[in-house]
Amino acid sequence: MHSLSIEERKSFTATEIKEVAAFSDKEVKLVAKNDSTIIITGDGLKINGFSKDNGSFSLTGNVRSVRYGASSESLFKRIFR
């Protein structure tokens, strides 16, 4: 089970992160270990740390929104693994 935390819209932390799929100073896209996607948007976003070993992730900047979605895998792919 993973957790997400936003502090005063200036910092964001998450656990159980599998990969950083894309990043810029305006948007960061993460993939959680359960294959859910997390998209953080804002201004001046800067990744402070990411550990693939333990899944911890942190960033600072002006966090405007966090979108959390289901698995990005297609239903067909999940059925026929």
Structure report:
With 81 residues, the chain is mostly beta strands. The protein has one domain: Immunoglobulin-like (Sandwich). It has one helix and six strands; from the N terminus they run ββββββα. Strands 1-2-6-5-4-3 form a six-stranded antiparallel beta sheet, with no helix packed on it. The protein starts with a strand and ends with a helix.
Overall structural domain count: 1
Q: Briefly, what CATH class? A: Mainly Beta
Please tally the helical runs, counting DSSP H or I stretches of 4 or more residues: 1
Mean pLDDT: 88
Order of strands in the sheet with most strands: 1-2-6-5-4-3
Give the H and E element order. EEEEEEH
Tertiary shape? globular
Count of DSSP strands: 6
**Which stretches are low in confidence, meaning pLDDT under 50 for 5 or more residues running?**
none
Q: Can you tell me the CATH architecture? A: Sandwich
Distance between the termini: 22 Å
The largest sheet is:
6 strands, antiparallel
Overall helicity: under 10%
> Could you say which structural class the secondary elements and strand pairing correspond to?
mainly beta
Indicate the radius of gyration in whole angstroms.
Answer: 13 Å
CATH topology: Immunoglobulin-like
The percent range for strand residues is over 45%
